[in-house]
Specification:
This protein is α/β, with parallel strands linked by helices. The protein is built from 14 helices and 13 strands. The strands form two sheets. It has a seven-stranded parallel beta sheet with strand order 3-2-1-4-5-6-7, with helices on both faces.
């Protein structure tokens, strides 16, 4: 290991994920005078944001869906770039990117560099219908090849312990990735602004508005959210659907429920939004009946805006939403439970107001700057250890 420059190579499944979650980390490391490259698949369809200046990009084939050929090609291309650019740190985020990094490391010559894999909700720790034993085994194989494995919650830490030694596992100490609380600030959306947005969306000023934000997949609870809203049958209500369809995973809806999304005027489908906050701000409640989260950013964004969240007693969700304080944590992801909770909240607006005030009062814990500062400190500490090992002639892999 030579020179003072600490090159960081981030590996992320899509350009959209990088720009949404890790842009500030890359910019922060670059501000220290270090070089940063992001190896990533393309942006998701319809998603476009400017790329930060000074941050290099290595285009990879679209591998986020887990297609074996694309994963293999992405791993080989990453290995070639690593050999040529010689990064100090290779940090992969999300399971597909960790797998690509594991393939690249397997075919790369050993060098004094650090390979890090961060899982944002491990399949190994999942249970029920949404858990695939094959995916869990692949995930464990990739994790074993990383020098450091980072997870966002205690459940994932317990799950990975059977495969990776404790001294290589790190639980991210912040509230996951956090969110941009400056963007998700209720003071930016006074009543007049929210009423104008509701009018633009065709929602009555006094309607009870439920929002679902995220991928329209069964493992994210999209079907439970839709079914629960329909079952609640609340007068003067609307359901905002924010996000794009996911053609890779099942949505879990029946044919009749799919028809309702287009025929029932209570459903307001706004699709993908580059700026979610103005739309989310008009909601009275955010629904997240997901059982496969790491530390849900959607819940943090809603709470930061003062929108109470209805979620499930599952990893990550229970760590973000405080049951009875700024939201409701249901024991299971069931449509009848969602319906009952929605009916109760719609009938008790004073309770909603109390929860909204509590959410705003606790929003500081979600500030993404906590995560960014922790990541940069983590990198600096690991680089110092790596250099110390190199200076003392110890083996170069960790």
């Amino acid at each position: 290991m030579s020179g003072d420059n600490c090159r960081l190579l981030l590996v992320v499944p899509s350009g959209t994920s990088f720009l949404t979650f890790f842009r500030e980390v890359a910019v922060g490391w670059r501000a220290r005078g270090e070089d940063v490259t992001v190896a990533t698949g393309p942006e998701l369809p319809g998603h476009s944001r400017p790329w930060p200046s000074g941050i290099n990009r290595l285009p990879l084939p679209a591998f986020r869906t887990g297609a074996p050929w694309n994963l293999a090609v992405a791993g080989w291309q990453l290995a070639r770039f690593v050999s040529r650019w010689n990064p100090t740190i290779v940090h992969a985020h999300f399971a597909a990117a960790v797998l690509v990094a594991a393939v690249a490391k397997s075919v790369s010559p050993p060098r004094p560099r650090l390979w890090i894999g961060t899982y944002h909700g491990m399949h190994l720790a999942a249970s029920g219908d949404h858990r695939s034993p094959l995916v869990a085994r692949v995930e464990a194989w990739a994790a074993q090849r990383m020098d450091r494995v980072c997870v966002l919650n205690d459940e994932d830490q317990l799950a990975i312990r059977s495969y990776v030694s404790d001294n290589r596992v790190r639980v991210v100490p912040t509230c996951g990735l956090g969110c941009d609380i400056a963007a998700f600030d209720a003071s930016r959306y006074p009543r007049s602004v929210r009423d104008a947005t509701r009018a633009r969306l065709g929602i009555a000023p006094n309607a009870f508005v439920v929002a679902y934000v995220g991928r329209r997949t069964a493992f994210k609870g999209f079907d439970i959210a839709v079914r629960g809203f329909l079952e609640a049958s609340i007068d003067q209500s609307a359901m905002l659907i924010v996000g794009s369809p996911d053609r890779t995973h099942a949505h879990g809806l029946s044919a009749a429920e799919c028809d309702a999304l287009t025929s029932d005027r209570r459903f307001v489908d706004v699709g993908w939004q580059n700026d979610v906050a103005p739309v989310l701000a008009v909601a009275d409640v955010c629904l997240l009946p997901s059982t496969r989260e790491g530390m849900p950013v959607t819940a943090m964004e809603a709470l930061s805006l003062g929108v109470p969240v209805v979620t499930v007693d599952a990893r990550g969700c229970r760590d973000v939403v405080r049951d009875g304080v700024d939201g409701v944590v249901m024991p299971e992801a069931r449509a009848d439970l969602v319906a009952a909770v929605l009916r109760g909240l719609a009938a008790d607006r004073s309770r909603l107001d109390t929860m909204a005030a509590a959410a705003i009062g606790g929003r500081g814990r979600f500030d993404r700057s906590h995560y960014v500062n922790d990541e940069i400190t983590f990198y600096a500490r690991e680089v110092a250890r790596l250099r110390d090992r190199a200076d003392h002639g110890t083996r170069t892999t960790l």
